[in-house]
Amino acid sequence: MRSVIFKAGARAVAPLLVLVSALLVVRGHNEPGGGFVGGLLCASAFALVALAEGVGAARRLLRIEPLRLVGIGLLVALGSAIPAAIAGFAPFTGLWVSLQLWDKASPVKLGTPLVFDLGVYLTVVGIALAMIFTLEESDDDAPAGL
Amino acid sequence: MALLALAVLVVLAVAAPFVQRAAPRRAGAILAAPILLLAAGFLAELPAVAGGTFASSSWPWIPDLGIAFALRVDGLALLFAILVCTVGPFSILHAGESLAGHPRLGRFQSTLLCFMAAMLGLVVADDLILLFAFWELTSFTSFLLIGFDRERADARRAALQALLVTGGGGLALLAGLLLLAIAAGTGSGPVFSVQGLLESEALREPAAWPLVGPAIVLVLAGCFAKSAMVPLHFWLPNAMEAPTPVSALLHSSTMVKAGVYLAARLSPALGGIALWDNLLLGFGAVTMLGAAFAASRHSQLKKILAYTTVSSLGLLMLLLGLGAAKAAAAYLLAHALFKGCLFYCAGILTEETHVKYAEKLSGLARLMPMTAVAAILGALSMAGAFPLFGFSGKELALKAELAAGSFGLPLVIATVVTAIFTVLAAVLAGIKPFVGAPPRLDEPSAESHADDRAAGPRDPAWPRLLGPLVLAGAGLVAGLAPGLFAKPMVMSTAASIAGSAVPESPLSALGLLWPPTLATALSIAALVLGIVLFALRGAWRRATDPIAAASAFGPDRRWNAALDGLMATGRLVATLLRGPTLTGAVRGALIAIVAIIGLAAWRAGPRPDLKEAAEGTTLLDGAVVAVLVISAIAAPMVGSRMGTIAVLGGAGAALAAVFLLYGAPDLSMTTIAVETLVVVIASLVAAQLPRIKTISGAAARIRDLGIAASFGLLVGWLALSVAGRSELKPVSDEHVLRSVPEAYGRNVVNVILVDFRALDTLGEIFVLGAAAVGVTAMLGTARRRGATP
Amino acid sequence: MTAMLPILVPLLAAALALALPGDRAPRLVLLATALFLPLVALLVMVRVHESGAIVVHVGGWAAPFGIAIVADRFASIMVMLAAIVGAATVLFSSGEAPDPRTDRARSTLILALLAAAAGAFLAGDLFNLYVWFELLLVSSFGLAVLEGRGNQLAGGIVYVVLSLLSSTLFLVGAGLCYGAVGTLNLADLGVRLAELGNPRLATVLASPLLIAFAIKAAVVPFVAWLPAAYPPLSSAIGALFAGLLTKVGVYAIIRTSTIAFVQEPEVIGFAILTAAGATMALGVLAAVSQAEIRRILSFHIASQIGYMLMGTGLALVIVATTPSESVRAELATIALGGAILYILHHIIVKTNLFLVAGLIERRRGTTELKALGGLAQSDPAIAAIFLISALSLAGLPVFSGFWAKLVLVRAGLDAGAWIVTGIALATGLLTLLSMMKIWVEAFWREPVAAAPPPREPGPGWRPMLAASGALAAIALAIGLGARPAWWLARGAAEDMLARDAAAARVLEGGPETPTGERREPRAPDPEEPRR
Predict the structure, then answer these.
(1) Using alpha carbons only, how large is chain A's radius of gyration in Å?
(2) Burial of C472 (0-12, 13-18, 19+ CB in 10 A)
(3) Does B194 or C234 have the greater pLDDT score?
(4) Rounded CA gap, B223 and B10, in Å?
(5) How many CB atoms lie within 10 A of CB B370?
(6) How far is it, in rounded angstroms, from Cα B594 to Cα C452?
(7) DSSP string, C363-412
(8) Residue C57 — φ and ψ, nearest 5°?
(9) For chain B, what percent of residues have pLDDT higher than 70?
């Protein structure tokens, strides 16, 4: 299964998938997409690497324990409630800033809901990878036919 | 005074273990002395109470529910308070001697003091709930005390039995008291005040009968269980497993009289109602006679006393049913004095000789003269011999029955027969051990201990002797000169029972003996016949063996069977509730679900508008639905796990198509991603699982198909029926309208997820996170287990 | 904001427990948070009792359009109870030896469970409630698996399968409700179902949801999971579950049947009363026959759920059938107050009994009655704690259970519900029997000859005993000072029965937003197209 071609292909496709997943998150508020789908796509990139080069390689590539990534994602999502709370509004009330990047461009609106979506993204990546890595590892360890 | 007494008892109960540890030899006296002072304090209140002035006090407890911590000391309460505070310390003193050196003596004294506080509280409580609380506390402390010798299985069994019988009665009592309170309140909230209840006119209104009738039955059930009326009497003889101080205090003079107390307490309100009177008369008479008969056949000291106690309780109930307040009051006092005395004496006898059976004892008067004096006086009083107070009590009882007219006659006969048996029991338990040939001490008895035999039986020291002597003396004084204390006690108690002052009449033994009446003659006849029966007791026991064997005097024997039956039923129920197997449990739940929702749907009878539902359906819709249906049917048919996973993946894809068709590309995308991931993970898992061998038989599969299909059809039917029933706009319309202008996002689905319903999403990502943590942990532990077999 | 703290604080802690480096961090985060939560709950409780129910429109979106978090008196009591149970069980488990391999997962899951319980109590929205139910299920199953001993998985599977069935029904019910009247907000659901003008249909809509809650609450005939899932659990986790899980189901039944599904109270009330009677009677019968302490206690949970349902059912029937308005309000409040008082007492006491089982296990290595004995002699502290809790459970005066039982029986008799009241009383007696069976066998009797000698309690014994002792003290306080406990329960019942006021509170008055305007809920406009 771990043929050279597959390895090379995975190495090539994985960054692309991560990029696309990021795009999905960014545009999710207006076009189809969002943190959830994005997260799944990003996870599949690492899953591909895991399939191609083994879980160890995928873990090294990720650099962070997936469950800790879940924790960080959850913290980011929870953190998006804080600005509103500090400003005295109900938690999770959207606070927006309008950025005029250059003169003629339409203003880009950035808000706490986007931060929330980012948290969702990170969490989903962590969750999917935590499960896949663990399952594949147990696959390797367990004697066949158990 | 009442509150002070309660406080003192509670403080003593807390202090008892420490006192016992600090001064092991004098602890009994230290604990008993303050209580005797309390008794004196209560006695000092007697003139005032006899004059009709009652001390009462009340503090709010749970005012929202109308429950108060209210105390009131009238004649009836005072009689019991004095009994508790005199017999109680004697028990403490006795225990201090007889249990000296026992490692749990401190805790025993503490429990005994707790009981005394509870009993005192019970009689002075002027609030039904407070009364009930103390009532249950007496049951529970009795449980602890009966089970004091907890290493013995008999003691544990007797304790549990007493608790369950009196506790069960307690629950009936609670319901009864609440019903009375509700009836007395006539719709404006229950009346929990005892005085308020007694003064209420509403209880005798015909309109209240639907509440009062059941209330009478329930309250009396509670009283009868507590006071050991047949057929709930069996726990009391068994309770003799308890040490002597407990038997004397709880199971003769105070706790078992709680039922009598409550019946007496409620008499002003309920006396005269036919149901109330007849229940008291019927159960009282049967108990009186039956228990006396049983007593006549026993020869174990404590059992004799226990059965005669049951019999006396029956007589008291009977007298209350007759409305004979004065006779009841007098006999109550007399019985407490002589029975307490006899229990202490019996305890001393057993402790000194290690013999439990009266037949084996004789001639002890010379060895233990003081005990003999007390026991003989007590026995004479119990037998109703002139001039002791027991004589007065029995005379008054017979007089009251004779005055009751035609239906009094069977009662009189029963009472006389009971008196004959009682004389036999009294002579056997209180006189026989002390007269006749001296015991042959050289003959080793099976029950004696080698080291004690050398010393031989002798009078105990004053702590154990004080109680019986004082009680016996009081019985003598009360009979000869009732004016000293007995008369005011009896008259004020009778006034409480009757609800108003009772007319004066002679109370002294002499006053009742002369001029002689029919009652006097009957009393003397009973005494003579009783002595004759004592002489012939061997023949009597043999003659009555068949009756005893045939009579159903064996609820006790059925107790074990009943408990076993309860356990067996319980195990059956447990199996039923757990479900025989996992699938059985799930199947049962599903059937119940379909039945309940089906019933609700059948009541409402919703009809789906199929025509409207079918409107605008395209061929593509149909195709997608077909894929869904086929994969649903195929999933359980496929023989392998991988196949099932693949088919379910197909169903997922079809679902994604549905979302796409109805304009939710986001959902569709997510569904596909999730389904893909699920298929991958499920395949990884399935690869490690063993092959499916057999699933289930054809019949089982058809049955399960039926259950599954009916569930699915029901839900589908409902979905079609209720959708769009109202003209109300769904809130999702609002979501669409507000998405761009207020939430700055054109993708409504995403805006819903991260803004409108962000909290749901937050919860869901935590759900997923928890699942990931759980799965990782599960595989981790599984692997660890695999690694270290 | 305040009202959301009981959810957000443990969630934050759970995320931290996952994210922070270091083996000891999760345990510390867990202990600190669990001990802090009662203070948070107290803050909410004080606020609610000072100035009335708090409604938070999450995200600044007015109900029924957005999600509403509602902290009324009932919810605030439940949040407090959950916090107390959490603090006690976590303190208890801090006496267990650390295990770096599972501590992180365990801490995270316990915190998630506490957040989920608080969320379920505070949710004012059907789907939001569903989410918290899911979190409760997943974290509890994770914890059960983590304990990983003996026949854990077998018991766990029954729990998971029936819980998934419950979730399915919950989703079906929520979907049907939304399909019928287009809202998920509980208060709005009540309003719109009334506008539907078809009470029987409203009951149909209620039935899947009430059954879903009944499965969670282990009501007959859905109890199978409870005796399978609890007994194998370790003491602290078992106590946490015993205290919280089923009560969330009961709470949801009370909440929805008083604010959302109010069209046919007599029908729903009667159904609940029937289930209550069956649950009380069968549960206690099963409990009496068991011979292992945790199994006895597990069946008692079911039995006592029956009491809570009895008060609820009585209140509903009284609301529907009592003619006089003043009597009706008073009596219904007493019945529901009785149910709430029962919950209050039960959570504390039942948690503690499971902790006591843990203490016994620590000392003797078993909780099988036939292998125990002599505990009264060897461990007087355990004996005292057990006796207080057992007598409370059996409802002996003046322990905490007595007052709850008293109020319920009084309401039952006043309402003429003879059968269920009789069952309630008989159940009390059998409860006493089974508690005293434990007492007689494990505490009084001499230890059997073959029994191993008591073990040394070892390190960590003190926090364990402290946790259990604290709960016993609370139970004792509820019993002796019945007045404040009844005041709380009654107030909560009043909030629940004043439905119109409760609905108005949630639906009127939009939240403030950053743009300075208030987002009021818009009146439905029939002219606008549906799609």
Answers:
(1) 19
(2) buried
(3) B194
(4) 26
(5) 15
(6) 50
(7) HHS--BGGG---HHHH-HHHHHHHHHHHHHHHT-TTSHHHHHHHHHHHHH
(8) -95, 100
(9) 95
Q: What is the dihedral of CA C392, C397, C398, C403, to 10 degrees?
A: 80
Identify whether C64 is preceded by a cis peptide bond (ω within 30 of 0): yes
Single pTM value for the model: 0.93
- Beta strands, E only, B450-504: none
Among C397, C417, C423, C424, smallest CA distance to B128 is for C397
**φ/ψ of residue B41, rounded to 5:** -60, -45
Contact B774 C184 (CB under 8 A): no
**Interface contact flag, B684 A113, Cβ < 8 Å:** no
Cβ contact B66:B190 at 8 Å: yes
C103-122 and C235-259 are packed helices; what angle lies between their axes, rounded to 10 degrees? 20
Structure tokens at B649: 């993946």
Helix (H, G, I), strand (E, B) or coil at B75: helix
Which three-class secondary structure string do you get for chain A? CCCHHHHHHHHHHHHHHHHHHHHHHHHCCCCCCCHHHHHHHHHHHHHHHHHHHCHHHHHHHHCCCHHHHHHHHHHHHHHCCHHHHHHCCCCCCCCEEEECCCCCCCCEEEEHHHHHHHHHHHHHHHHHHHHHHHHHHHHHHCCCCC
- Paired tokens of C486: 């009844």
Phi first, then psi: give them for residue A98, nearest 5 degrees.
-105, 120
Kindly determine whether residue A40 and residue B677, on different chains, have CB atoms separated by under 8 Å.
yes
Q: Which of B722, B742, B783 is the best mutation test for C, with the most CBs of C within 10 A?
A: B722
Max avg pLDDT among A129-133, B299-303, B686-690, C490-494: C490-494
Q: How many whole angstroms separate alpha carbon C266 and alpha carbon B498?
A: 46
Residues C338 and C311: beta-carbon distance below 8 Å: yes
Q: C334 to chain B, minimum CA–CA distance in Å?
A: 9
Residue in chain C lying closest to A72 (CA)? C19
Chains linked to B by 3 or more Cβ pairs within 8 Å: A, C
Ramachandran angles phi, psi of B505, nearest 5°: -160, 165
The label of the residue with tokens 């950025």 reads A99
Residue B461: both structure tokens together: 């020291």
First to last CA, chain A: 22
Contact C94, C24 (CB under 8 A): no
Neighbouring residues of A69: CB distance < 8 A, sequence distance ≥ 6: A62, A122, A123, A125, A126, A129
CB C144 within 8 A of CB B773: no
Residue B781 has pLDDT above 70, yes or no: no
From A67, A90, A95, residue closest to C56, measured CB to CB: A90
Distance CA C355, CA C378 (A): 18
Cα A60 to Cα A52, B35, B773, C44, C194, distances in angstroms? 14, 82, 20, 46, 59
What CA–CA distance (Å, rounded) separates B756 from C128? 12
Residues 6+ apart with CB under 8 A from B206: none
* pLDDT tens digits for range B538-549: 889 888 888 777
Structure letter (DSSP) for residue B429: I
pLDDT digits (tens, 9 = 90+) for A107-128: 777 889 999 999 999 999 999 9
Token digits for A98? 């309008």
Please state the ipTM of this predicted complex: 0.94
Under a CB-based contact definition with an 8 Å cutoff, are residues B17 and B106 in contact?
A: yes
Residue C342 structure tokens: 């029962």
Pairing of strands C54-57, B55-62: unpaired
Q: How many CB atoms lie within 10 A of CB B525?
A: 13
Average pLDDT over residues B477-500: 91
How far, in whole angstroms, is CA B243 from its chain's centroid? Answer: 22
Q: Residue C15 has which token pair?
A: 């995320």
pLDDT > 70? residue C139: yes
